[in-house]
Amino acid sequence: MTRLAIVMFIVGSVVPLAAQEEGDVRLGITYQPGYVPALVVAPVASRPGLEAIADLAEDILRRDLDFSDRFEIITPSDALPTNGPPNYQLWNQMGAVWLVTADVSGSGASPILRVGLHDVVYGRLENVQAFSLPEMSDGDFRMAIHRASDAVVSWATDGQQGIAATRIAFRRRGSDGTSALYVIDSDGENLQRVSTGGGSVYSPAYSPDGSRIAFTTQDETGTFALVEANLITGGRRTISTSTLIQTPTYTADGRLAYAEMSGGGVEVFLEGAGKLTETRGDALNPTFSPDGRSFAFEADPTNQPQVYVQPVAGGRPRRISVYVRNERTNAVGPDWSPNGDRIAYAAISGRGFQIFTVNPNGTDRRMLTSRGESEAPSWAPDGRHLVFSAADSQGHALWIMDTVTGRSRVLTSGRRDELPDWSPPLPTGS
User: Fold this and answer.
1) pLDDT, average across residues 180-190
2) What is the pLDDT of residues 141-150, one digit of tens each?
3) Where exactly are the structural domains of the chain?
4) Of 274, 243, 278, which Cα lies nearest the Cα of 258?
5) CA distance 150 to 160
6) Strand, helix or coil for residue 227
């Protein structure tokens, strides 16, 4: 999510946002990478006639585990023997800590992928599971293997969340000014357009179960609509229309929050709870803590938008971004980590916006990007990866960054893609 340029006058009596001490936004880039164990994916075995499935499964598994940023991937030599029981001593000599083995059985119409994780150091099979796959032409084929990859991550990390079986929703703007809603797998494959019913598209947001996407549209008359698309059935429903309604998001229990015109300004509303904010400026981009007790948002009582945190039950908002008087220090588009420990947002640093993270109490600010302009961060379900939009001399792109190591990769490029939102782990058939 990110702030849209909305200029309006605020009238009436309001509660001012709490001010904090002035600070300095000139931060360095800080990463603290730790130990990364080496992992090797052995060639995937198969019955005759299933070789193509095995080869693709091997490629997806290896890339997924690489993109998890939790392992150093070792590529085995073609000369190494891979038949028979694992040679733990040989893999240990190569420096591997983990070994992934797999085989494909069944039929082309109903293949079965069996994946095992071996602890090379202790010379034992750590875990094994069989995954039913659809046929290769099925749209869920790659996602089924992504789920196997996430199982490996969970086995090797004592239950931590993987990101392979996820998608990212975003808005794609055309050269003619139109915009459309797209989703893409987190590895950059399987790009799909989602039907929105027409009009310009803004701020997509995944539901907690990944089955729906909420977004807003604006038609030719300027009217905004809050719409929800069902990714399972393909249906859509219009939830509300207004002269201005923007930046929808879901709470962990599935309720929708959004920013809507109210009394001459823009305030945050929550389904079932009514208006949550009373600001001296426009309030946008709500994002909720995992326990649902607090939310972050942006507002501009000083004519410079800043990021605030406020209890859902009510209370004074606390600014967690850095405001420097007489300098451009705009901070926008917060997103609360699913782990609850960090809030990401975009703020002006130097000549443009960069991505920052901060503790929910405003301490320990970290600047993660430093080139071009980067905006609209969205957390992955593992709480360590971010997707964001960026623009530099090479054009526009969506990037994915691992906030632990600083490793980054391009998700999409060559188009005006923006406002990304990362899904939760996706159920079968989504």
Assistant:
1) 97
2) 999 999 999 9
3) 38-156, 171-422
4) 274
5) 9
6) strand
